[in-house]
Amino acid sequence: MKPGATGITRIINAAGYSVQGLKAAWKNEAAFRQESVLLVLMTVISFFLPVTGVERAIMIASLLLVMIVELINSAIEAVVDRIGPEHHELSGRAKDIGSAAVFVAMALVVVVWGGILIS
């Protein structure tokens, strides 16, 4: 077992690492910044739409999923870039698959928002 902090100290440390990760994503990832702005704008807009609380929650959850997937994609890209700058088929594939995951999450936003607003 890996030695380290336990209990509340571990939770506090983990929260600090998470904040560092969010700051790094904001500083280094233009897509994360753009999606953050869209998250805020679309969340505000959702409160002016004629939807139920559950529908609004699902709409906002779909936006948050994009943010989660973008963070994972950014982490994949950082690890691949750390390995080396030369092109490798597997590195390219990893980056492409991460990008595809973000695309699918964005498509889900369109389906969820469209489905709720059209019904």
From TrEMBL:
It catalyses: a 1,2-diacyl-sn-glycerol + ATP = a 1,2-diacyl-sn-glycero-3-phosphate + ADP + H(+). InterPro entries: DAGK (IPR000829), DAGK_prok (IPR033718), DAGK_sf (IPR036945). Mn(2+), Zn(2+), Cd(2+) and Co(2+) support activity to lesser extents. Its EC number is 2.7.1.107. One of its GO terms (molecular function) is ATP binding. Its cofactor is Mg(2+). One of its GO terms (biological process) is phosphatidic acid biosynthetic process. It is found in: Cell inner membrane. The active site is at 70 (proton acceptor). GO terms for cellular component: plasma membrane. The chain crosses the membrane at residues 36-52, 58-76, 97-118. Signal peptide: none annotated. Its main location: membrane. It is a multi-pass membrane protein. A divalent metal cation binds at residues 29, 77. Substrate binds at residues 10, 31-35, 56, 70, 99. Keywords: ATP-binding, Cell inner membrane, Cell membrane, Kinase, Lipid biosynthesis, Lipid metabolism, Magnesium, Membrane, Metal-binding, Nucleotide-binding, Phospholipid biosynthesis, Phospholipid metabolism, Transferase, Transmembrane, Transmembrane helix. Pfam families: DAGK_prokar (PF01219). Belongs to the bacterial diacylglycerol kinase family. PANTHER family: DIACYLGLYCEROL KINASE (PTHR34299). This is Diacylglycerol kinase.
